[in-house]
């Protein structure tokens, strides 16, 4: 009997010790810096009060102990609610604001007390206090995410905060998963780009009528100077008049946009952002016109596939959204390939390009641009766009190279129209 009693007592003590240990770890993990300060003050009060014989220190220590015990009761209770994070719009343009909503639902049959909610937004933090929620209902808070700079803004995960009014304890619980908001560069509509069309028998038929091609259009009467090989003899025999064939001209057009990411090509970040917007405007316009387009950049980016060439990579051009998503991630880098070497690589990647736009900053000289253009295949129409915020728009021809200098994104539209790049 005595042995059984001893065994029971030992087991009870062990269980109590485990319970106290678990409880202490739970409380200690939720204690704030201020809470630990109070704990230290309580310890010093008890020790100092007994050593020095000061009853005031002991009284303050007991007051702190009671305060800690009462504050710890605020952590008691289950989190029976459900929290969802909704971001209706996952892509915005620089300067816009994206709405978000935090919804707290109460699926229980009892009234739930209010709860503090935190939503990390980029480097910032949005804080809300959701009031008490009746049973079977929900409450929501709407917030706005300011898209001030191009890039990807992480939103969430949502955290609920439970703690005491004095801030001695704080317990965080993570709920909804993190979502991302893509901030696209600003783009503008630009004139139709007809330069760079190349006669190609395997190209697409156009409305331009010619006497030598493969896409038959119609018959017309023979006029002096027509090639007699084009006479349609059967129709001529029926009408009694010589009839010749007409054709629709077939063309192809492959636009290549070269965007340098080397820090040495740009004077500052503002120039680089203007260059990204210019590249996006040209690429988006080509995609909307259903024309072949390649956008090639140098240097590093946030996501690089296993097959990517570290010196250059191609952005996705299967759709406008995919291109802008990739442009959202590009960043200039001190180790990125310079514009001259990049243009040569781009010419190898898109050897069938008919027109190339070289997008760079004011730190790039015209001599470098001519050197870069020389690395492209013969017959490619080359347009260099120098981005220099605040500068007056200038267009000039340097040998076979067209150089556009823009100070604002709208200047790109006007310069292309003036250059008859339609």
Structural write-up:
Helix content is 32%, strand content 32%. By secondary structure, the chain is α/β, with parallel strands linked by helices. It folds into four domains: 2-75, no CATH class; 82-184, Immunoglobulins (Immunoglobulin-like, Sandwich), CATH 2.60.40.10; 205-251, no CATH class; 254-418, von Willebrand factor, type A domain (Rossmann fold, 3-Layer(aba) Sandwich). The strands form five sheets. The protein has a seven-stranded mixed beta sheet with strand order 16-15-14-17-18-20-19, with helices on both faces. The chain has a four-stranded antiparallel beta sheet with strand order 5-4-8-9, with no helix packed on it. The longest helix is centred in the N-terminal third of the chain and has 29 residues, at 2-30. The radius of gyration is 36 Å and the shape is elongated.
In short:
This protein has 422 residues and is α/β, with parallel strands linked by helices.
Kindly report the oligomeric state of this protein: single chain
Which structural category fits the helices and strands?
Answer: alpha/beta
C-alpha geometry: elongated
CATH topology of the largest domain: Rossmann fold
The total beta strand count reads 20
Beta-sheet strand percentage? 25-35%
Average pLDDT level: 81
The CA-CA distance between the termini, in Å, is 103 Å
What CATH architecture of the largest domain do you see?
3-Layer(aba) Sandwich
Q: Treating each run of at least 4 consecutive H or I residues as one helix, how many helices?
A: 9
Please tell me how large the radius of gyration is: 36 Å
Give the proportion of residues in helices. Answer: 25-40%
CATH class division of the largest domain: Alpha Beta
Tell me the series of helices and strands, N- to C-terminal.
HHHEEEEEEEEEEEEHEEHEEHHEHEEEH
User: What is the H level of CATH, i.e. the homologous superfamily of the largest domain?
Assistant: von Willebrand factor, type A domain
Adjacency order of strands in the biggest sheet: 16-15-14-17-18-20-19
Please indicate the count of domains: 4
- What low-confidence regions span 5 or more consecutive residues with pLDDT below 50? 194-208, 301-309
């Amino acid at each position: 009997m005595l042995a059984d009693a001893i065994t029971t007592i030992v087991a009870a003590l062990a269980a109590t010790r485990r319970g106290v240990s678990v409880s202490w770890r739970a409380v200690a993990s939720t204690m704030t810096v201020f809470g630990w300060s109070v704990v230290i003050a309580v310890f010093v009060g008890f020790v100092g009060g007994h050593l020095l014989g000061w009853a005031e220190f002991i009284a303050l220590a007991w007051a702190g102990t009671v305060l800690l015990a009462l504050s710890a009761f605020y952590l008691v209770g289950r989190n029976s609610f459900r929290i969802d994070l909704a971001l209706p719009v996952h892509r915005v343009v620089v300067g816009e604001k994206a709405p978000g909503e935090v919804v707290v639902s109460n699926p229980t049959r009892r009234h739930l007390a209010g709860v503090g909610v935190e939503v990390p937004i980029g480097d910032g933090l949005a804080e809300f206090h959701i009031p008490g929620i009746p049973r079977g209902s929900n409450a929501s808070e709407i917030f706005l995410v300011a898209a001030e700079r191009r890039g990807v803004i992480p939103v969430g995960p949502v955290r609920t905060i439970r703690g005491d009014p004095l801030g001695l304890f704080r317990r965080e619980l993570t709920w909804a998963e993190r979502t991302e908001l893509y901030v696209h560069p600003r783009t503008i509509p630009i004139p139709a780009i007809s330069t760079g069309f190349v006669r190609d028998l395997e190209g697409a038929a156009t409305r331009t009528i010619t006497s030598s091609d493969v896409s038959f259009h119609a018959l017309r009467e023979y006029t002096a100077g027509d090639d007699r090989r084009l006479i349609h003899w059967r129709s001529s025999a029926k009408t009694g008049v010589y009839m010749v064939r007409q054709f629709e001209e077939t063309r192809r057009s492959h636009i290549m946009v070269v965007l340098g990411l080397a820090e040495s090509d740009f004077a500052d970040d503002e120039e680089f952002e203007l260059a990204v917007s210019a590249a996006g405007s040209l690429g988006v316009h080509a995609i909307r016109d259903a024309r072949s387009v390649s956008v090639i950049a140098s240097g590093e980016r946030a996501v690089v596939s296993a097959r990517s060439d570290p010196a250059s990579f191609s952005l996705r051009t299967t759709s406008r959204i995919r291109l802008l998503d990739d442009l959202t991630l590009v960043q200039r880098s001190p180790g990125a390939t310079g514009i001259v070497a990049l243009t040569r690589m781009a010419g190898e990647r898109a050897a069938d390009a008919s027109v190339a736009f070289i997008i760079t900053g004011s730190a790039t000289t015209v001599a470098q641009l001519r050197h870069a253009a020389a690395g492209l295949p013969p017959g490619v129409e080359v347009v260099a766009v120098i981005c220099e915020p605040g500068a007056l728009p200038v267009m000039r021809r340097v040998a076979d190279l067209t150089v556009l200098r823009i100070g604002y994104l709208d200047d790109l539209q006007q310069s292309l129209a003036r250059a008859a790049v339609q």
